[in-house]
Write a structure and sequence with these properties.
- The complex is a heterodimer.
- By secondary structure, chain A is mostly helical.
- Chain B has 2 domains: 52 residues, no CATH class; 231 residues, Orthogonal Bundle (MetI-like fold).
- Chain B has 13 helices and no strands.
- Classes of the chains: A mainly alpha, B mainly alpha.
- Chains A and B meet through helix 1, helix 3, helix 4, helix 5 and helix 6 of A and helix 3, helix 5, helix 6, helix 7 and helix 8 of B.
Chain lengths: 280, 302
């Protein structure tokens, strides 16, 4: 690495760190505002609230039926994680191990739901789901959320499967393993770190997936992020602190999983979907 | 070899199977089928359905939805409103991300910073909108700090207008742009820069003549992905912006057509227009990418 020592480059570096600092400072201040407000008795026109209380949490808990919403959220997320894992890993295995005509077309097909933003394909999707009567139900929400997550799992898993030596599988075959045994005793243990990483990323993304859930959810199939949106949208009906308390519950739910996920994945993987691919 | 040997008795089961296997179709390939069916059912079919539905309006000829969209300024202005938000924020994010990525690539411990930056992405747009509503509000800490320092005497109006949405797009969009940029920047072999330095190029020259040409394709992709994210802005435009005025973006128009007017045909038409505008810009940017060098630059790191 080259390090410049001229005054100009030092000033430049200092300016850049100031921008980063400003961004991070504002980010934390924004999060701190929400947390402070959720514990405030009354907070108008001062730096800090007049007093502290935890009663907003109990009121938010009952007003927004947070317990039901949390259960629905975890059921949706759990179903999405399991189904996208099952569909995604099997498809990724086929795509990683076999070369067949039309494979590039298939990969492009799996890439599209990740490149097109959820609102664009969510509206036609919601239309179809409303016509089939699936929208508003639990499975409608799960189905909509699966559209970007299945391709995500496939694209994360393909490079992971490709780096496992096929000779290991051939050796297992030689020793008489059938497909099921091969999968349980050979492939699964080898693939487990990759599957875990992919599914944790799916989990984090699904908790925060607003658009698709919003477009297809009914009153009983709302996830936490959609409930939060409606609460903010109807601000004025309820105390700000109560909404902030709900936001803190949402943050806590997301951050717990983010912390777990970060033990197994590199933070950049949340953005760049596959293992660092070459730029060309 | 087997395929040739058994090629004489044509149209027999085993031979067909072997021929298919030779081209890559066997039991393992079939594992891809469930996922393909799923994508066809829930992605391709709805898209095709929406496309056809958009030509079957509630009233009028087959193009009535599109005619209505492009004759009603309340509808066609949404394209300009969205672009007016998405293009500046994407450019700001990219212009901020590049120098920072160049600085961060020299760091040993990038993980802390990348973890902090991943926060707004994982928290999602709704929470950022909700947080900024308090933080940037007239009584929020941001205005309060500026007033204490003495930069302003009256609180700035930063929410329920253009700047609120702008701020939320920077807060959620910058980390995304930055992490993508960082992965491109660190993918370039540092030996190229060292060679430039050996020949006496200063920092600006090394950036301008070595990195910039190599990174242009990566920047084009980063721009496209960030732009597409910003173009489909929805929750923050409603919560932080002025959803009936300057931040009435195209996704709000699509949503209102579908869930307030229950005109799914019109909603599909708006969604198709939205997709088309995105696609047009992405294709234009990627075509411009072809003007630059595209070759190996990753070195042995691979």
């Amino acid at each position: 690495m080259i390090r410049d020592t001229t005054i100009g480059s030092k000033l430049w570096a200092a300016a850049i760190w100031c921008v980063v600092g400003f961004f991070v400072l504002n980010l934390f201040a924004m999060i701190a505002t929400v947390i402070t407000s959720s514990f405030a008795t009354r907070w108008l026109g001062t730096w800090l609230p007049a007093g502290w209380t935890t009663r907003w949490y109990s009121s938010a808990w009952s007003e927004f039926q947070l317990w039901d919403v949390l259960i629905v959220t975890f059921q949706v997320v759990g179903a999405v994680v399991l189904i996208s894992g099952a569909l995604g890993v099997t498809a990724a295995y086929a795509l990683a191990r076999r070369d067949f005509p039309g494979k590039r077309l298939l990969v492009l097909l799996f890439l599209l739901p990740l490149l097109i933003p959820p609102i664009t394909f969510g509206i036609p999707l919601a239309t179809v789901l409303y016509q089939t009567g699936l929208a508003g139900t639990f499975w409608g929400v799960v189905a909509a959320n699966l559209v970007p997550t299945v391709p995500f799992v496939i694209l994360v898993m393909i490079p992971f499967i490709e780096q496992i030596d096929p000779k290991i599988e051939a050796a297992a075959r030689v020793f008489g393993a059938n497909t099921f045994k091969l999968f349980i005793h050979v492939l699964l243990p080898l693939l487990l770190p990759g599957i875990l990483a992919a599914l944790l990323l799916v989990l984090v993304r699904t908790i925060a997936m607003f658009e698709l859930t919003f477009l297809v959810a009914g009153p009983t199939s709302q996830t936490l992020v959609v409930a939060l949106y409606y609460a903010v949208f109807a601000a004025g009906v309820r105390a700000v602190q109560s909404i902030d308390a709900m936001a803190v519950v949402y943050m806590a739910t997301t951050l717990v999983w983010l912390v777990i996920a970060l033990r197994f994945v590199n933070p950049t993987q949340i953005v760049t979907r596959a293992k660092q691919q070459p730029a060309h | 070899m087997d395929a040739i040997a058994s090629a004489t008795p044509v149209e027999h089961g085993p031979s067909l199977r072997q021929r298919l296997a030779a081209r890559g179709f066997d039991a393992v390939t079939l594992l891809v089928v469930p996922a393909v069916i799923f994508i066809l059912l829930l992605f391709v079919y709805p898209f095709a359905f929406g496309f056809i539905l958009s030509f079957e309006p509630k009233a009028g000829g087959w193009l009535a939805n599109y005619q209505r969209f492009f004759s009603d300024s309340y509808l066609y202005d949404t394209i300009a409103n969205t672009l007016w938000l998405a293009v500046p924020t994407t450019l700001v994010n990219l212009l901020l991300a590049v120098p920072i990525a160049f600085r961060v690539r020299l760091m040993r411990h990038q993980r802390l910073l990348t973890t902090i930056l991943v926060l707004p992405i994982t928290l999602g747009t709704v929470l950022v909108a909700e947080g900024l509503l308090n933080y940037l509000g007239p009584q929020g800490w941001f205005n309060r700090t500026l007033m204490t320092i003495g930069l302003i005497s009256q609180p700035l109006k930063l929410v329920h207008n253009y700047w609120g949405v702008f701020a939320s797009l920077v807060i959620t969009g910058f980390p995304f742009t930055f992490l993508l940029t960082l992965s491109y920047v660190t993918g370039i072999d540092p030996a190229l820069e060292q060679a430039g330095a050996t020949l006496g190029a200063n920092a600006w020259q090394r950036f301008r003549y070595i990195y910039l040409p190599l990174l242009m394709p990566g920047f084009a992709i980063t721009f496209c992905l960030s732009f597409v994210q910003a173009f489909s802005v929805f929750p923050s435009a409603v919560l932080l912006g002025e959803p009936a005025g300057i931040t009435r973006v195209i996704s709000i128009a699509a949503y209102q057509a579908a869930f307030e007017e229950y005109d799914y045909s019109m909603a599909s038409a708006v969604a198709m227009i939205m997709g088309f505008v995105q696609l047009a810009i992405v294709v234009a940017v990627l075509a411009a990418r072809g003007l630059f060098y595209r070759g190996p630059a990753t070195g042995a790191k691979g």
